[in-house]
UniProtKB/TrEMBL annotation:
<protein>
    <submittedName>
        <fullName>Uncharacterized protein</fullName>
    </submittedName>
</protein>
C-alpha cells in the first residue's frame, strides 16, 4: 500500500494537484492505509497535540541518553510550539469554539 501512495503522490505532484481525495483510490474496508498515520480527520485536535507532545518527550529522553544536543534542542523547540498550540486549543474550547 505504501508504494501505491508514492505513485499517487508522484502523479499529483506531476499534475500540479494540491489535494488528492484518497477515497477515490482505496477500498472502503481497507483500514491498512491508516496504519502509519499520525492522526485522522475524526480525531480530537487536543488528543493529537497531546500525542505529539508525548512522542516528542519520549524522543527527548532518547536524545539526552545518546548525548545528541542538537536533536535535543530541536525537540525542545518543537515542544514549545506544540505547547503553545495546545494552549490555543484549550483556550478556544473554553470559549465554546471548536
Amino acid at each position: 500500500m505504501e508504494n501505491e501512495y508514492e505513485v499517487l503522490a508522484e502523479y499529483a505532484h506531476g499534475d500540479g494537484v494540491s489535494e488528492i481525495d484518497f477515497q477515490d483510490f482505496i477500498m472502503e474496508d481497507d483500514e491498512s492505509i491508516f496504519r502509519n498515520c499520525v492522526n485522522r480527520e475524526d480525531e480530537d485536535p487536543n488528543d493529537v497535540v497531546q500525542s505529539q507532545i508525548d512522542m516528542s518527550l519520549d524522543l527527548l529522553t532518547v536524545a539526552k541518553f545518546i548525548g545528541d544536543s542538537k536533536w535535543e534542542s530541536e525537540l525542545k523547540k518543537r515542544l514549545a510550539v506544540m505547547s503553545r498550540r495546545r494552549m490555543r486549543l484549550q483556550h478556544n474550547n473554553s470559549n465554546g469554539m471548536k
